[in-house]
Amino acid sequence: MNFEGDPISFSASFQKNPAVLHTLNTNANVDWMTSLATSVTTGGFQIAQEYAETSTLNDAVTIATETIGWIAFETGFGMIGENLFIIGHYDDGVSNGVGQTQFIINLFGYENPPDIVVAVIGENGRDGSWARGSGTYSSTNQGVYAEEDQRSDVERGHASEPFAWAAFERNTDIILVSQQPSNSPSVAPSSVPSLSASPTGTPV
């Protein structure tokens, strides 16, 4: 697909591609709408509205102006006070639509399921998609589907999409935030294992 959104440039470049989370902050459209980020690089990305299958050749959608919120995180893991965070992005190369293979985000170091936000950061499928939980949710795993609507057809299968996520210990307060991306790696406690890329969704 040839997706074109509004270009966003970071005030300073990341060392590696960040995890970008995004959402619509307003509700001006009559038809269903969500947000989509694509073309994520160390210097920026593209952001736009995603109407999925709510528009067909015989039922065109009038798109209203919306405010889209987003946040970009360095990938990795570490501690905020005594609270663990894990941030990453990955594309497992497997069809992740509803009824297909769930995308699994591997977690570690949590006693309870963390607060986790996941977003789609690509457009490989032609019908559009957004991230939704698959039902797998624990202290060690979060399952996600690339969900489609059923406006123009009933199937919900979807191509593999890249997902971005940020997991935080419950009730974590982020009170010290840099105004620019840090060039320093995240510091993790010695009890936390190192990360490596894997087909099950470990941060890269």
From TrEMBL:
Sequence ranges of Basic and acidic residues compositional bias: 148-157
Residues of the region (Disordered) are 132-157, 179-204
> Under what name is this protein listed?
Uncharacterized protein
